[in-house]
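New here. Your pick:
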Amino acid sequence: MKDLLTPKQVARCIGVSEASLKRWCDKGTVPSIRTAGGHRRLPLNGVMQFLRQTGYPIVRPEILGLPATTGRGKETIERARSQMRSALETGDEPQVARMVFDLYLARHAASDICDQVIAPAFLDIGARWQHGEIEVYEERRGCEVCMRVLYQLRRLLPSLSDSAPQAIGGTLESDPYTIPTLMVEIALREAGWRADSYGIGLPFPTLCAAIRAVRPRLFWLSVSTIASTPDFLPAYSKLYDTAVECGVPVVVGGRALTEEIRRAIQYSAHGDTLRHLISFAQTMNHRA
């Protein structure tokens, strides 16, 4: 994918004249910028938002760096949910990308795509792996495919201003799962937050240091696995105390946070889904 496109490229992509596209740019219907040499360029994420809002059909999706079959049919959450697991298991990246981008162009929220399509697919894949129905490499390959597609989706989100509220987060040093914290970042960015996942495998002390240094409006911790509950509880308590001292709300989530563990820790909010997280983030914005 290219971050900046020419008017001619976008016109060819959606099957209109270049003159028409330039008129839309002049009216502000399609966002554009000027290069140092005075040439007009269209940001990819702005083009995608235009396509989402207007429903213009995509004639040449490959010009935008999308799979060639993107936009050829009306994708639904239900259909994508039933097909996503198979596409991930077989490593069919074009199919995974097509489903995700078709849903996004059809105005489905990125958080709903993650909650209702990608997350259930990986739950099924995990269960099939545990029962010996698929190999480890198939699960890992699916993760790599998904991450590449999610990074592409992140680039299509609207640009954020420097005044947008900031959020940071990641996973613990015993937690190697990238996809959950990446989905949190995408969901918050779509909701208007300057969200940055600091990655996976982060020790508690460095997370505390990040909270003190950045002082974000929100901190999230994705917990897909816990190596030792007796070690986790006191270390988490110190992290939470650090966040409280800095006035930073802490949102936690993840399959490893059983009801028993949740009763033993403090947090500002817990999210079973990204929708829960977004709802909490929106209440924070209203209080600001």
Observations:
- The two ends are 36 Å apart (CA to CA).
- The chain has a mean pLDDT of 93.
- The chain has three domains: 4-64, 77-156, 166-287.
